[in-house]
Every structure is written in C-alpha cells, then in structure tokens.
Amino acid sequence: MKTFILENGVKVFQYGEPIDTDAVYAEKLKQKFDEKLKPSFKEDGKAIINIELEKEDMVYGLGGNLGGINKRGRVYQSYCTDEPSHTEEKTTLYGAHNFFIVSGKTHCGYFIDFPSRIKYDVGFSTLDSFNIEIFGQDFNLYVIEGETLEEISSKFLQIIGKPYVPPKWGFGYFQSRWGYKNKEEVLEVYNTFKENKIPLEGIYLDLDYMDNFKDFSISKERFDGFKDFVEKLKKDGTYLIPIIDAGVKVEKGYDVYEEGIKGDHFCKDKDGKPYTAAVWPGQVHFPDFFKEDTQKWFGSKYKLLTKSGIEGVWNDMNEPAIFYDQKSIDEAINSAIESKGKNMDVFSFFDLKDKFANLANKDEYYKSFYHQVGNTMKSNDEVHNLYGHYMTKSANIGLKKLLDDKRFVLISRASSIGMHKYGGIWTGDNCSFWSHLDQNIKNMPSLNMCGFFYTGADTGGFGNDCYGEMLVRWLQFSVFTPLLRNHSAIGCQNQEPYVFGKEVKENSKNLIKARYRLLPYIYSEYMKSVNNYKLMFKPLSFEYEDELAKQAEDQLFLGNELMIAPVHKPNHKGRYVYLPQKMVEVSFKGDCESLAVKDCGIHYLSYELEDFKFFLRKNSIIPHINPAMNVKHLSQETLKIIAYVDSEAEYNLYDDDGISHQYQQGNSFNTNIKITRGNDDFIIEVDNSNPSIKEIEFTIIDSSNNIKNKKIKL
Ligand code: MIG
C-alpha cells in the first residue's frame, strides 16, 4: 500500500498497481497516513471493505443507480450493463459511479477508482453493515474528509475535473422517438410543434436514419437529401441529433469496417482476431477505444455527420451491449434441435427456454475479448466500465476538431466517473411508470455528486405506454433538468406533447415555455456549478439536519434559490411539501405568475395539471425572461426578476456566448443584482456586464406578502 495526498487534502490509498482510469487528474504527493478503511485481500482475488453503519448514518452518491437518495437497504453493482428493465431488484444499470458519502455524526466521502465490477451491499444483508466487494486487488481508494456534505462533494468534483458543457441550445426542449422512420415523419413532428406553437430545440434521430444500422451511414431511401434537411431545420434554430452505436457492422466494402480492419482498430478475441458479436447490425466488431489512435480514428468518422451540419450526437449500446455471440446462439439452437420431438421433462424445458432468454450481455462474453491497455492486453471484463467512457472521449475529441472548437451536444448511455468531462448521460431505458418519474428525481443529486451534470431521464418514459397525465407530471419535473428530452420506444404509444388531446397539449406547451422562461437561471446555475465545483441539485439534507429534511427524497434544491417538489403520483391534485424554512410558492399559470409566502413546516399544497410551481427560498432572487420557440429566438432584453427579500438578497446571473469554449478562459457576462430592504422601500443595486440585457423588471415580495414592482433601464 502507498499513500498520497492531493492538493485539496484528499487522501489516496493505492493498493497494488491500479490501471489508469482517466478519472482523477490531480497531482499526488507522497505522504504517510494510517489506513482509514482496511481492505482485506482474499485468495479469490477480491478485496473486501467493510464499513460499520450507525443507526443514523445515511449513504449518498453512487450516481445513476436505482434506489433512493439515501442508498441504505439495497445492493448495487458497478458493471455497465444494458438493462432494459429497471425493476427494484436490479443491482446494476449503465453507469459505474463509485463515489459515495457516509454521513452521520461525521461525514466522509470515498471514491473507489477501479474499472471492473464492484458490489455494494449497503445495509441489505446486515442492517448495520456496509459491505463492499471489489473484484480485484489493484485500485486507488480516495478518502475525502470535510465538515459538511457540500464540502465533501465539492472536494470530489475538484479532483475529477470540470464537467462537460453543452452549447446553450443543449438546454432547450428535445423531442425524440425510436421509430420516426423517415424524413417525412421527422418533418411532420417539426411541423406539428410549429403549428401548435410549442417550443422545440431539436429532434433526436434514432437507429432509423442509418443504412442497415451501420455507424456513419445515412439511409438513402429514408433520409435522402440529409444535409439540406439538417440545414433547413437549423436555419430556424432546430437541431437534429443522430445516434451512434458502439458496434461496427462486419460487411465487406463498408468503409468503417474496412478502415477498422486495416488500421487494427478492433478488439481482439483470444486468438488475436477481431472479436465478433451480434448487436443491431447483426455481426459487429467493437472498436478498441482504449487505444489512442483508435479514439482518434473513430472520432474523425463523426465527420460524416458534421459535414451535413450536425452539431450533436448520442452514443448508445456502449456498455457494450451484446445480443449474442456465435458460440452461445449455436449452443442454444443445437439444444433446441436435440430436443425436437422429445418428451422433455419440465427442467429440460426451462433450461432450453433460458438458453435463448439469457443470451444477451452474458458475463462470459466480456471475458472473451481483449483491449490493448498500454503495452498489455486486458480482457474487457478487467476494464469493463471504461468502454463507454472511452467511446465518448473519442467522440469528444473528434467533434471538437470537426466543429472548430464550437460546443456540441454529446450524451452517452454507458459511463464511469471521468467521462463526465467529455459528455453527458441519459438514464437509459426507463418506462412510463410513476415510480420511474420518482426515480428521475432521486437520481439528479446522486448523479451530480459523481460529476454528471448534463443529464436527465427519458421524459414520459421510454418503454410502455405513456398517457397525458403522466407526460404533464413528468414535464413539471423535467423542465428543471439540464437534459430535457421526451423519448420513447418503438411500438409504444406515441408521447409527443400534442398526441393526448387539447388539455395535455396546452399544459405541456406551457411547461415547455416555462423551461424557456427559466433558461437564464438554469444555464447560469449549470455554469456556476461547473466553474465552482458545486452541486446543481442538492438533497434538502445537505443543508438541513432535521429528520424531515433527511426523509424528503422527492424534493430537491436547485441552486441556492429554488426548491422543487413535483407531483409524481397519479390522480393527485396536490401533495404534501416540507418547507425547511420560510419560502415563497411561485406559480406560473400561462404567462402570469403568482407569489405566496409559506411558513416553514409541512403543507398540503394544490398542484394541478395546468400548474407549474416551485419554491423560492428566503432572501433569494431568480431571473426569468419571455419564452421563445427555441434558444436562437430567445431575447434577454427585458430581464425579469422575482425576489423574496426579507432582509437582503443577492444573485449573480452568469451568461456567456453559449457556443464557444471561451468560457474556459473566464470570458463571461455577469449581472449582479442586490436587493436590500430599506425603511420603506427596497434598495436595488445592479452591476451588469451583459450587453444583451437592456432593462430589468422586478417583482419583490417580503415576508408579509407585500409585493412591489419596479423597473430599471440599463
Ligand atoms: O436495443 O436505438 O437506450 O434510447 O431508443 C435498444 C434504439 C437500443 C437503446 C437506447 C434507446 C434507443 C434504443 N437503444
């Protein structure tokens, strides 16, 4: 064991010879410490860590896993998996997010930097024991100490580096569906949004646009004239975002396949031949994204899309998902043939059925192909969780070059900590279930803790049939999430905001407009979180220590100003909300807003389908603007302010060009607004460097529900 310290005081315990995972960049200085958690190293090659849990301890983090904000009482695994059924017993989904905080009388954060399987039993088998099984003995353990949960999260964000930043248009509303089968159908979606005056930032293109599921190909039959189509929509500020899958189709004459073979870019089987498995295109090879020249090569292929005007992509199936390999499907087919005509006993029947049912994503597949990691070959299993991470790194490198340093939208399904630098993630194939809306709420702060800021779930649910009430409720929450995308699976009920009748259409439209109204705030909070290593979404318990705050798992702070408390159950006309302090309930109805001061405590508040509500914290200010059909058409000329001022409130509205990487050099606009309560009036001070803001309209409420309106020309 070796020990190090990082500049911000984080302690590192190095066991064995860990593989570089691209997660932590901070410089390590040698220093001696006592072990904080003493792993035991087992003969089977695993390492075990055990943390005793006190009754009051809570466990936070673990990113995109299912379960609560408090992770106690469940088992989780880090092993990126294409798991299309997010039911309660599932332990692993698409991400490997190995950061968590144990919080009770004291708080401590831990990051296990290891690229293969880790199993967390958080007080499941034994109530008071947190048992961690690491499937290897070479890893770094980071111990992050601090006085508060916010301090620990912040220190962790510092050592993993700043999250990916999309262009400002990435914060708009996106429509998506697997099964928009041709240009005409996509155009119809675009036109229907227009006719109904529902804002639309872009449309995601799923597998349907490709020629035979081939990466970097466009179907001539279904998407002829792709470039003109892309450019035409873009003129109006509407972007198309095509999908790219991890596997490259094995097909003679197909350029990506041929180049991949020639350049030795594919993962190898045990005999050193390109590894073959089957996914959407049938047989595929997987690019070996662990090799730098493969990252560069694959990244450069995105040119086929960027040259048509594309400025955003989504990377899918990069766990990597495998439907079957030849050996396993042959075995299944052979046992079916052998059983033909036989009187099978029930167990043989189940065996046969399972042979087919369990073909996808078998453990043995991941042990049977290899990556070049430095100078050695490692089985995918040994470095499994880095595959999607490096695919997204490859796309990031490629797009940055191809788009001349312009920002782009890039999201990935699989991820591990470190990938947050290169792209965002969506939370995969959820369903149109109320419990999955609830899960979406719980995931936001956990994902933030692990560095994933540009994230959101498929609004309305991916699998199963959505219906009007559910879509509206989902939007009432997801209009706050940085990635806002309504996506659904082929074969399910369509769930565009206009398909469920007039009322749902109007309500959805108002909610999407509310997103555009709040965009300056959402963007500002996103950028400040990135720049200052802060969480954008926080559980209430990060600031309040009372029992009700700790249990409030369906309410979140967004920045320091807002608290959100969405309705996530059917047939409700409102909900109980816990206010840990005095706040103002803000309701947007159409273009008007109403404000009401609420005392600290539990309230039953009405929240109807035509409402949009959030809570403004005491002594806080939020900005908003008039909505528009997309970011290109937004104007900040008149900035509007809602403020709840008891004594003094201040807000710094961050803005920048929204398209370049200039923000990294600190090129930004700042509008600092300070409101102080004087004897009989409010004193307003504005310090503004944003040339696009010409006037500010204030609505200020005090603790006695008195409202004042003011206007300032700049
Ligand atoms: O096997 O591309 O999570 O968003 O629509 C399914 C089709 C493959 C999984 C993604 C989903 C996408 C779907 N993909």
Q: In summary, what is this structure?
A:
The protein is α+β, with helices and mostly antiparallel strands. It is 24% helix and 29% strand.
Helix and strand topology:
Elements (H helix, E strand, L loop, with lengths): L1 E5 L4 E5 L12 E3 L9 E2 L5 E6 L5 E4 L12 E5 L16 E2 L2 E5 L3 E7 L4 E5 L6 E6 L4 E7 L3 H12 L12 E4 L6 H13 L6 E4 L20 H10 L3 E7 L2 E2 L5 H8 L14 E3 L2 E4 L6 H10 L1 H4 L5 E5 L9 H14 L6 H12 L5 H5 L2 E4 L2 E4 H4 L3 H16 L6 E4 L2 E2 L7 E3 L7 H16 L5 E2 L1 E2 L8 H11 L5 E3 L15 H31 L4 E3 L7 H5 L4 E3 L3 E3 L9 E6 L3 E7 L2 E7 L2 E6 L6 E5 L2 E5 L13 E7 L3 E8 L13 E9 L4 E7 L6 E7 L5 E7 L1
Parallel strand pairs: 8-24, 14-15, 14-28, 15-16, 16-20, 20-23, 23-25, 25-26, 27-28, 38-42
Antiparallel strand pairs: 1-2, 1-3, 2-13, 4-5, 5-12, 6-9, 7-11, 9-10, 10-13, 11-12, 17-19, 18-19, 21-22, 29-30, 30-31, 31-36, 32-35, 33-34, 33-36, 37-38, 39-40, 40-41, 42-43
Helix pairs in contact: 5-11, 12-13, 13-14
Bound molecules: ligand MIG.
Ligand MIG binds next to loops.
